[in-house]
Design brief:
The complex is a heterodimer. Chain A has a single domain, classed as ABC transporter involved in vitamin B12 uptake, BtuC, CATH 1.10.3470. Chain A is 71% helix and 4% strand. Chain A has eleven helices and four strands. In chain A, the strands form two sheets. Chain A has a two-stranded antiparallel sheet. A two-stranded antiparallel ribbon of chain A has the order 2-3. In chain A, α1 packs antiparallel against α8, α2 packs parallel to α4 and α9 packs across α10. By secondary structure, chain B is an alpha/beta fold. Chain B folds into two domains: 195 residues, Rossmann fold, CATH 3.40.50.2300; 128 residues, Response regulator (Rossmann fold), CATH 3.40.50.2300. Helix content of chain B is 45%, strand content 19%. Chain B has twelve helices and 14 strands. In chain B, strands 7-6-8-9-10-13-14 form a seven-stranded mixed beta sheet, sandwiched between helices. In chain B, strands 2-1-3-4-5 form a five-stranded parallel beta sheet, with helices on both faces. In chain B, α2 packs parallel to α11 and α5 packs across α6. The chains are: A mainly alpha, B alpha/beta. At the A-B interface, α1 and α10 of A face β7, α7, α8 and α9 of B.
Chain lengths: 302, 381
C-alpha cells in the first residue's frame, strides 16, 4: 500500500510539472494555432537564470522557501521578457505568412536558443548542478509513503498558478480579449481589440508558467543542461495534445495523466516502457477522441 | 550576371580554392609524432573527457620537456564528440584521414569506444582506450588496446565486496539500458553475486539523460534490498542518490568507475556519503609515483585528479613506452610494441598487456565520507 501511495504522490508531482509546461503550449495554440516549439527552451532558460542568480542571493540568505520565491520571481521576469522577445522578433513578422512558415520558424527558434545557450560565454555545453534553494525534508507520511516539502511545494505552486491563470482568462478584461482573439482574430481586431498586444501578453503568460516549471524541475532534479528543454517540452506537448490542445484544463489533465502513466509503468510494468506507454496512451486517446480528452472539436471550413 | 555580382561570386571562390590548395600543399612535418584524441569534452559525461584530456596533456608535456621520443616531439590533436557515439565515429575518421595521426587515444565510455574502434581497426591505426571497461571493446581487432581492467573483473570485485564487506544477501539493480558499460557490468555483477549465494530481487532500468528516478526507486524501496547496484555514470547516479534520500531509502549504493567525477559530489550532496564504488586508483595510495602525480596535477589544474585523469596519463605514458621500444614509427611497429607492453609501472598500477590487449590490474573499493572517496579495500585479479 505504501508503495502504491508513493507512486501516486510521485506521479502527481511529476504530472504537475508537465501540466505547467503544457499550459503554455495550449494557450499559444489556442490563440495562434501555432505550436511554439521554443517553449521547452524557455523552461531551460528559467533554470539557467536561476543557476546564475541564486548564488548572489545565497550569499545573503539561507536556503528556504523565501529564497526559492525570490529566484522564482527573477526567473519568471527573465522568461517573460524572453517570451515577449520570441513573439516580437520571430513570430510577429510572420503573422500573415502561411502557418507552415511559423512552424518551421518555431523549430528554428528552439534550435537557436539551444545552441546559443551552449556557447561558452552564455552557459556552456557542460551540465551544471543547480544550487540548492531549499533543503528537502520529509514533510509528513501517509500510510508509510513519504511526502517531502518539495513535492508539497510543486503541487501547491502549480495549483496556485493554475487558479491564477483561470482567474486571468475568465475574470479579467485581458482574459476576455484573449478568448475573443482565440475565437476569431479578424473580428476581434474589427471590434477594437489590440490583437498584437493580446498575443504578446499570451506569450508572456505562457513563458512565466514555463519559468515556474523550470525552477521547480531544477529544484527537484538539480541539473541544468542546455538541452534539458527538449525532452521536457516534448512530453509536455504530448500532454497538451492528450488533454486537448487549446484547452487549459485539458493541459492540466493531460499533464497529470502523463505523469501518472509514466510512474505506474515504471513501478508495475517495466521501466523500459516508460516513454512507450505515455505515447501509446496518446495514440489510443487520439484514435477515440481526435480532439483530446477535453478538447473542443472544431469544424474546419473548407 | 552583372560585372559586380560576378566579382562578388568569383573573388571569394578564388580565395577558397587558393586556400585549400595551400593547405593541401602543406607537407606533413616529419619530426613530430601526432597523437589523436577523441572524448566527451561536453555533454552529460563532460568531466570524463576533460579529466582524460588533462591527464594526456600532462604526460605529453612532460615527455616533450624531456626531449620527446628519440628526438621527435609529440603533438596532440583533440576532438570533442559531445558524448555521442556517432560523433565519435566522425572524430576518429577525421583524425585518421585528415590529420593523419599515428595513434589514437580514446574513449572513456565503452559504447563510444565500440563505435569508433572499427574505424581505427579498418585503417590499421593503433587505438588505446584509457578507461573503457566493457570486454567487447578490444575484441574488435588487434589494433585496439586498453590500459584499464575489464568489467568481468570489476563486476566480480563489486559482488565480492558486497558479500564479504557489506554482508549483503539481496541486491537491486538499476541499469542504463542504452549503455554497453552499464548492461555489461550489471551482468557480470549478477553472475558473481548469485554464485556467492546472493539474490537479485529487483531490476529496474533507465536511460542516460533521464532526470526522474523516483518511480524506479519507489519500486526498489518496496522490495527492501541490502544494496542497490548502480552501474551508471555520475550525472544520473548523483540525481538517484538525492532522490533515494528524498524517498527515505536506506539501502547503500554500490557502483563502478562510471561514478568517478568531481561532479558526483556536487549533484548528490550529502546523499553521497556512505556509498561505495570500485575504481582504478585511489588518492589515498601512499605510492610515491601516485602522490607525485597528484601533486603535479593539482599544481597545474587546481583540482584533485580523478581516476580518469590518472588513466589518461597512463595511456599516454604506455604509448610513449611503446614508441621508445618500437624499431620505427610505422603504425604496425607501434602496434607490435604496444602489444608487448610488460610490467609498465603506471599511476593506476603495473600494466602488462595480455593476449587480448587488456591490462590486468587490481581494483580498489572506496567509500564516500564527507563527500570524498576514501580507500576501503584492494582486490587483486
Amino acid at each position: 500500500m505504501a508503495e502504491f501511495i508513493q507512486h501516486v504522490i510521485n506521479g502527481i508531482s511529476l504530472g504537475s510539472v508537465y501540466a505547467l509546461i503544457a499550459i503554455g503550449y495550449s494557450m499559444v495554440y489556442g490563440i495562434l494555432q501555432l505550436i511554439n516549439f521554443a517553449h521547452g527552451e524557455v523552461v531551460m532558460l528559467s533554470s539557467v537564470f536561476g543557476f546564475y542568480v541564486a548564488p548572489y542571493f545565497l550569499a545573503h540568505m539561507d536556503p528556504s522557501i523565501g529564497l526559492f520565491l525570490v529566484v522564482l520571481t527573477v526567473a519568471m521576469v527573465g522568461c517573460g521578457i524572453v517570451g515577449f522577445l520570441i513573439e516580437r522578433l520571430a513570430y510577429r513578422p510572420l503573422r500573415k505568412a502561411p502557418r507552415i512558415n511559423c512552424l518551421i520558424t518555431a523549430i528554428g527558434v528552439s534550435l537557436f536558443i539551444q545552441y546559443f545557450t551552449q556557447l561558452d560565454f552564455v552557459f556552456g555545453a557542460i551540465p551544471q548542478s543547480y544550487p540548492e534553494l531549499m533543503s528537502r525534508e520529509v514533510y509528513f507520511t501517509i500510510a508509510g509513503a513519504e511526502v517531502s516539502n518539495l513535492q508539497v511545494l510543486v503541487l501547491g505552486l502549480s495549483f496556485v498558478l493554475m487558479v491564477a491563470l483561470q482567474w486571468i482568462v475568465y475574470r479579467t478584461k485581458l482574459g476576455k480579449a484573449m478568448r475573443a482573439v482565440s475565437e476569431n482574430t479578424e473580428v476581434s481586431a474589427l471590434l477594437g481589440i489590440p490583437v498584437d498586444r493580446v498575443i504578446s501578453f499570451t506569450f508572456i503568460l505562457g513563458s512565466v508558467l514555463a519559468a515556474a516549471a523550470g525552477t521547480l524541475v531544477s529544484t527537484m532534479y538539480p541539473k541544468v543542461d542546455a538541452l534539458m528543454g527538449t525532452l521536457l517540452g516534448l512530453k509536455a506537448f504530448v500532454a497538451a495534445v492528450l488533454g486537448g490542445i487549446g484547452s487549459i484544463p485539458g493541459a492540466v489533465l493531460g499533464g497529470l495523466v502523463m505523469g501518472m502513466a509514466e510512474e505506474f509503468t515504471v513501478g508495475y510494468l517495466s521501466s523500459s516502457f516508460r516513454d512507450a506507454i505515455a505515447f501509446a496512451i496518446l495514440i489510443v486517446v487520439l484514435l477515440v477522441r481526435p480532439s483530446g480528452l477535453l478538447g473542443k472539436s472544431r469544424i474546419e471550413k473548407v | 550576371m552583372t560585372y559586380r555580382s560576378m566579382i562578388k561570386f568569383f573573388v571569394p571562390l578564388a580565395v577558397v580554392v587558393a586556400m585549400s590548395f595551400v593547405s593541401a600543399c602543406k607537407k606533413k612535418t616529419e619530426d613530430v609524432i601526432t597523437i589523436g584524441e577523441y572524448g566527451s569534452m561536453t555533454g552529460t559525461e563532460a568531466t570524463f573527457g576533460i579529466s582524460t584530456h588533462r591527464g594526456i596533456e600532462m604526460a605529453i608535456e612532460a615527455v616533450n620537456a624531456a626531449g620527446g621520443v628519440k628526438g621527435k616531439k609529440l603533438k596532440l590533436i583533440s576532438y570533442d564528440n559531445q558524448g555521442k557515439a556517432e560523433e565519435s565515429v566522425t572524430a576518429v575518421t577525421k583524425l585518421i584521414t585528415k590529420d593523419n595521426v599515428d595513434v589514437i587515444i580514446g574513449e572513456v565510455a565503452s559504447s563510444r569506444s565500440k563505435a569508433a574502434a572499427p574505424v581505427a581497426q579498418r585503417y590499421q591505426v593503433p587505438m588505446i582506450s584509457p578507461s573503457s571497461t566493457n570486454p567487447e571493446v578490444t575484441a574488435i581487432g588487434d589494433y585496439i588496446f586498453r590500459v584499464c581492467f575489464i568489467d568481468p573483473f570489476q563486476g566480480s570485485v563489486l559482488a565480492v565486496f558486497a558479500t564479504e564487506n557489506l554482508k549483503a544477501k539481496t541486491a537491486a539493480l538499476l541499469i542504463d539500458k542504452k549503455s554497453d558499460y552499464s548492461v555489461g557490468l550489471a551482468d557480470f555483477f549478477t553472475k558473481k553475486f548469485t554464485a556467492l549465494g546472493g539474490k537479485i530481487i529487483v531490476e529496474q532500468n533507465y536511460v542516460g539523460g533521464d532526470i526522474d528516478f523516483k518511480a524506479q526507486l519507489t519500486a526498489i524501496k518496496a522490495k527492501n534490498p541490502d544494496v542497490i547496484m548502480v552501474p551508471g555514470y555520475y550525472t544520473e547516479v548523483g540525481l538517484m542518490m538525492k532522490q533515494a534520500k528524498d524517498l527515505g531509502l536506506k539501502a547503500v549504493f554500490i557502483g563502478g568507475d562510471g561514478w568517478d567525477s568531481p561532479k558526483l559530489a556536487e549533484i548528490a550532496g550529502p546523499a553521497l556519503n556512505g556509498n561505495y564504488m570500485s575504481n582504478h586508483y585511489t588518492t589515498d595510495d601512499k605510492d610515491p609515483r601516485v602522490q607525485e602525480f597528484i601533486k603535479k596535477y593539482q599544481a597545474k589544474f587546481n583540482e584533485v585528479p580523478d581516476g580518469l585523469a590518472a588513466l589518461g596519463y597512463d595511456a599516454a605514458l604506455v604509448l610513449v613506452d611503446a614508441l621508445n621500444r618500437a624499431p620505427d614509427f610505422s603504425k604496425k611497429s607501434i602496434r607490435d610494441a604496444l602489444a608487448q607492453t610488460k610490467s609498465f609501472a603506471g599511476v593506476t598500477g603495473v600494466i602488462t598487456m595480455d593476449h587480448n590487449r587488456n591490462a590486468s590490474k587490481p581494483a580498489v573499493v572506496v567509500q564516500a565520507q564527507d563527500l570524498v572517496f576514501r580507500f576501503v579495500r584492494k582486490i587483486e585479479p
